[in-house]
Amino acid sequence: MGVPVIGCACGVCTSTDPRNRRTRTAALLRMAERQILIDAGPDFRTQALAAGMNRVDAILITHAHFDHIAGLDDLRPLTMYGAAMPIYGSPQTLAAVRERFAYAFDVSSSHGSTRPGLDLLPVEAPFQIGATAIVPFDVLHGTWTITGYRIGGLGYVTDASELPPAAWAHLENLDVLVLNALRQTPHPTHLSIPQALDVIAQLRPREAYLVHMNHSIEHAATQATLPPNVFLAYDGLEVEIMN
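RESULT FIELD:
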């Protein structure tokens, strides 16, 4: 739901620490030759403006829940005058995108208005975006099977409740692991902070960043309890990945 939560007056939602203001989870990968976005939730427009984004070359979608795809319509300024935006995800995820954004694929729906140009590219095996190799793998999100991504030294997993055995092999020898951690107590569809820390301890990345925290997590107090190579992510955070 993002933090602050609408109508909530808890200590985190009313905090003056900017790190306790959390838009929906997404990431922008800036490389020498291209920029790749991971997920585009309902806060995408605000996030893009804050990041000074002027182009996106491709988008990786983890799954089709609202908080990960609702911002796809805001791609219109980036697709009005060129080719449709390449959007990668599992066949199931992209089928849901096509259903929810049906007008984007209906040529007759414009009539003087604009619509986002979306080029849906289902992936179930490793693929390339230019010179960048990307490995998708299955992650469990409650009863859903969603997608994590390995990109060089980066492992990106959000909304996981469990990592299937095959996923662990894709997350070995990481420079940076991004992993969801909703709250301190267990949840049926998301890892808790203790569960995420257990995954990190087994995978042993150089650094790990926790994302997708809800409003029960106060940034400074929680960060003080984490291992030295584990960090709570926050809006605007930039991390350099060496490989």
